[in-house]
Amino acid sequence: QSQFVTSGGGVVHPGGSLRVSCTLSKHILDVAAIMWFRQAPGLNQEGVSCIGSTDENTYYVDSVKGRFTISRDKSKNTVYLQMNNLKPEDTAVYFCASGSWCSWDPRDSTSWGPGTQVTVSS
Fold first, then answer.
1. How far apart are CA 16 and CA 106, in angstroms?
2. What is the pLDDT of residue 55?
């Protein structure tokens, strides 16, 4: 049974916004780096954003810099990915994952949540 609950996906027009959420157990949130990956049909998983485990350093893949923001609310055991100015190429299934450090390599993530579909279409 997954220790993560992912929500917030949907359908939006280009230029629109969505926020996806990942609610997870407190003991993971307190010690792990939390990543967001995405996977579009026919493509490999792509690391999108990460927030460090014990600091608030955040990291973004170049294609989303300036448009996406990752944040963590420990009072709600939740990590958010706010996505603004969405583009059709952002269409994918989005997953949250945890690991010991921020890494774009999915093999470095040890636990995964279920995906949530984000579709950007006119």
1. 28
2. 67
